[in-house]
């Protein structure tokens, strides 16, 4: 894992100083993000929007994603924190074309799905086979015929040093 610590010459007071860390020091780590769009019921989306995040554990569809995240230690590794992921609420629109076997909708129709955008991280040095295994697990767990999954180019993640 490529990691760099940067300490600015002149830095004002910050949380790091209160913890006894080097004042203003940050650590950069090179990662790739994996973002998967996951359908949930409208009631789950509404409950999340209202602040009830525990509903995610009881949503049958989302529970399968949680199992993949919790059993993949290479995902969301933040040292003393594991299985780290972020969730954004949303909707996804699509038109079902001939030949599809949709989980929602029917051929020729235009549909909207309550969707969560779930982002996690993997170390940028993970080899292609490891990344492919993780992506395959996400695809296998996903309820859609063709899941929408994004894999970023390497980028720097910044944390306190």
In short:
With 161 residues, the chain is α+β, with helices and mostly antiparallel strands.
Description:
The chain is an alpha+beta fold. Helix content is 26%, strand content 32%. The longest helix is centred in the C-terminal third of the chain and has 14 residues, at 128-141. The model is unreliable at 14-18 (pLDDT under 50).
**Order of secondary-structure elements:** EHEHHHEEHEE
Structural class: alpha+beta
Largest sheet: 6 strands, antiparallel
- Spans with pLDDT under 50 lasting ≥5 residues? 14-18
| Helix percentage range | 25-40%
Approximate shape:
globular
Mean pLDDT: 87
Number of helices: 5
Q: How many β-strand runs?
A: 6
N-to-C CA distance: 15 Å
Hey, roughly how much beta strand do the residues contain?
A: 25-35%
Rg over CA atoms: 19 Å
Detail the topology: elements first, then pairings.
Elements: E1 3-6, H1 15-19, E2 26-39, H2 42-49, H3 55-58, H4 60-70, E3 86-95, E4 110-123, H5 128-141, E5 149-151, E6 155-160
Antiparallel strand pairs: 1-2, 2-4, 2-5, 2-6, 3-4
Give descriptors for this structure.
161 residues, six-stranded antiparallel sheet, 5 helices, 6 strands, 26% helix, globular
